[in-house]
Amino acid sequence: MAKPQLESSPHRVIRASAGSGKTYTLSNHYLHLLYRGAQPGEILATTFTRKAAGEILGRVLTRLAQAAADAQGAYQLAEALKEPGLDLARARRLLEVLTGSIHRVAVSTLDSFFHRMAGCFRFELGLPRQVRVVDENHPLVRQLRREAIDAMLGDEDLEVMIGLLRRLHHDAAQRRITDAIDEVVRELYAVYRQTDAPAWRWLEPPPTLDSEQLAQACQLLEEAQTLLPEDKRWFKAWQSDLDAARRSDWEDFLKGGIAGCIAAGKEEYGKKPISSELMEAYRPMVAHARAAIVRRVIDQTQATRQLLERFDAHYSRLRREHGVMLFSDVPWLLSRWVPSLAADGDIGLDALYYRLDSRVQHLLLDEFQDTSPVQWRILLPFAQEILAGEGSARDGAPARSFFC
């Protein structure tokens, strides 16, 4: 029987909310590919949990088994797939193909697929022969994290480290250095590993007033008292703004009051209009306060990366020495290695496919919105190769397809 012609594009993006049948649609697509002649080992379907992966494979097998049981089941599956040529004999043949290749079926979590890849390239990735894979909350990991901080403090000039912490924490003088660093590491180490250096320098520092201009702006603010309406609340707000400006406490200056309203683009304070003259008196200091806060954020961000970079050097060394890997280590290593392999014009992904003993012709990604930047950097070369349209249809089967 002749197979139906392919639609104009084999690629699909499904946008839908939770509980609306995305997993059912993905299993439909998987079965559709099998019907069109795709081999089970060529279809990579990934999701985020073992339960979800089991549900996808279970649905595929159950629906195909039901279709192979009787003519009515075959008819129902043919209707769902919009493939009128799918009869009882064809359903049984597809079930035989799938179960006969069950050891090659790639319906799994992303982590499982990544660990499979890493196992094929253990030497290239520098993975130790004996390794313990643990999560970030494991007692040994907490111990190694503290040891890395201690080693970092031993290597660095203490004043340099205190300076970094002061740029990160206003209350650094009252905190234990080790605790302060550990807090930064626990909160941001994963972000550090997912980003490159330029991402931490993305904001351009806005201009601030020099000392002479700042004095003039403060003078304008002092003289603004004459522009206030006869209202004790306005006077109190102005006095609070002036005090905050004199202390250079820019967060407090913009937190509320008249300055906060002007900074937020409001034209009223206390349900009374702010005169244009008062706005003009405030604007230089408001602009300076905004710029000073942004500059502080930029400085804190860059100090954070510097601290994490110093920590990472010791932490990575200690994990290697103890044969310990984090669950996040494998995707992080692959995210740096797979793109470079794919960019090799002579080899490309062929070396990866050779060791995996299968070629990804069809990529199906479940819950794509939850894919992290690190995970996507690994999957992107596969998607790009598929979307490039290389390869030809085989016996009517789609050459390649991307579904998410």
Summarize model confidence as the mean pLDDT. 87
Q: What is the ordering of alpha helices and beta strands?
A: HEHHHEHHEHHHHHHHEEHEHHEHE
User: Helical segment tally?
Assistant: 17
| Fraction of residues in helix | 55-70%
How far from one another are the termini? 30 Å
Strand content: 5-15%
- Major sheet description: 4 strands, parallel
Gyration radius (Cα, Å) is 30 Å
User: Any low-confidence stretches, pLDDT <50, length ≥5?
Assistant: 1-6
**Got a strand count?**
8
What structural class do helix, strand and pairing data support? alpha/beta
Largest beta sheet: what is the strand line-up?
2-1-7-8
Shape: elongated
Structural write-up:
With 404 residues, this protein is of the alpha/beta class. 60% of the residues lie in helices and 6% in strands. The chain has 17 helices and 8 strands. The chain has helices at residues 22-35, 50-69, 71-81, 88-100, 110-120, 122-125, 139-155, 158-168, 177-194, 211-223, 232-247, 250-255, 257-263, 276-321, 329-343, 350-356, 373-387, and strands spanning 43-47, 106-109, 132-134, 268-269, 272-273, 324-326, 362-365, 401-403. The strands form 3 sheets. It has a 4-stranded parallel beta sheet with strand order 2-1-7-8, with helices on both faces. The chain has a two-stranded parallel sheet with strand order 3-6. Strand 7, helix 17 and strand 8 (401-403) form a beta-alpha-beta unit. It starts with 21 loop residues before the first helix and ends with a strand. Residues 1-6 have low confidence and may be disordered.
